[in-house]
């Protein structure tokens, strides 16, 4: 079945450091890929998405590129802020579907210190 | 309106109680979802409704009973829960038919349920 693997956390960075959170997936066909962020005590917010190979999703300085050859969707940000501290989830929706189950990775806790 | 609203935000219930969680959206989304999230874990899908009909039930125990009375509302009725059912319950919605520029899911802030 479909699965998502995220890098082990937690990740601790200083403000203005470069961030990479690795995400790889296993799926049949061409899934849609998502990054969600969850701040303490809140629900999930869509950070960015990509629906086909080589698409780059971007939002709030975060970027991720859909790499079919490496089945990856790594999240990057050039300069993190304290306000980026949260849990980040990589997720996929099976190819050939326009709605339905999101399969999530285990989540990566990011803490940014001043 | 680009939000999914969930009520209540917090709920404490006994194992013999009956309670309901409510979810509302006015984005015209015709797919709605219930997810359960335990602490430090990813959300787990429970139910999916499409056009107000149940399309996916992820083998959820019958003490959880979903209901979709109209295209904007989704309820989760709770009865005879166990302490291990304590979790954050998230509602989400999405379009059913999507294009390349759409397809995201909008999540509510959740109901934090404690079963005592």
Describe the structure concisely for a colleague.
The complex is a heterodimer of chains A (114) and B (116). Chain A is mainly beta. Helix content of chain A is 0%, strand content 50%.
Work out the radius of gyration of chain B.
Answer: 14 Å
Helix and strand succession of chain B? Answer: EEEEEEEEEEE
Question: What's the overall geometry of chain A?
Answer: globular
The count of DSSP E runs of length 2 or more, i.e. the number of strands of chain B, is 11
Describe it.
The complex is a heterodimer of chains A (114) and B (116). In chain A, 0% of the residues lie in helices and 50% in strands. Chain A is globular, with a radius of gyration of 14 Å. Chain A contains no helices and 12 strands. In chain A, the strands form 3 sheets. In chain A, strands 2, 5, 6, 10, 11 and 12 form a 6-stranded mixed sheet that branches. Chain B is 0% helix and 55% strand. Chain A binds chain B through residues 32, 34, 36, 42-46, 49, 51-52, 89, 93, 98-102, 104-107, and chain B through 4, 6, 31, 40-43, 45, 48, 50, 55-56, 58, 90, 92, 94-98, 100, 103-110.
Draw up the topology in text.
The complex is a heterodimer of chains A (about 110) and B (about 120).
Chain A: E1 3-6, E2 11-14, E3 19-21, E4 23-26, E5 32-38, E6 44-50, E7 56-59, E8 62-65, E9 75-77, E10 86-93, E11 102-104, E12 108-113
Parallel strand pairs in A: 2-12
Antiparallel strand pairs in A: 1-4, 3-9, 5-6, 5-10, 7-8, 8-9, 10-11, 10-12
Chain B: E1 4-7, E2 10-13, E3 18-25, E4 31-37, E5 44-50, E6 53-57, E7 64-70, E8 73-79, E9 87-94, E10 106-107, E11 111-115
Parallel strand pairs in B: 2-11
Antiparallel strand pairs in B: 1-3, 3-8, 4-5, 4-9, 5-6, 7-8, 9-10, 9-11
């Amino acid at each position: 079945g479909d699965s998502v693997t995220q890098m082990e956390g937690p990740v601790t960075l200083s403000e203005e450091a470069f961030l990479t959170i690795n995400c790889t997936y296993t799926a049949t066909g061409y899934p849609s890929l998502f990054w969600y962020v969850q701040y303490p005590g809140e629900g999930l917010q869509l950070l960015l998405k990509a629906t086909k190979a080589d698409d780059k999703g971007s939002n709030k300085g975060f970027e991720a590129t859909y790499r079919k050859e490496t089945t990856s969707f790594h999240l990057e940000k050039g300069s993190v802020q304290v306000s980026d501290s949260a849990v980040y989830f990589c997720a996929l929706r099976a190819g050939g579907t326009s709605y339905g189950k999101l399969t999530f990775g285990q989540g990566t806790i990011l803490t940014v210190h001043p | 309106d680009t939000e999914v609203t969930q009520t209540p935000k917090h709920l404490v219930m006994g194992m013999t109680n009956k309670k309901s969680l409510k979810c509302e959206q006015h984005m015209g989304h015709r797919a709605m979802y219930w997810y359960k999230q335990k602490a430090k874990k990813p959300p787990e899908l429970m139910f999916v409704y499409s056009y107000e009909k149940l399309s996916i039930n992820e083998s959820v125990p019958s003490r959880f009973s979903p209901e979709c009375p109209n295209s904007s509302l989704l309820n989760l009725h709770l009865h005879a829960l166990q302490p291990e059912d304590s979790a954050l319950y998230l509602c989400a919605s999405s379009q059913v038919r999507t294009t390349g520029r759409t397809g995201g899911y909008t999540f509510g802030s959740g109901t934090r349920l404690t079963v005592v």
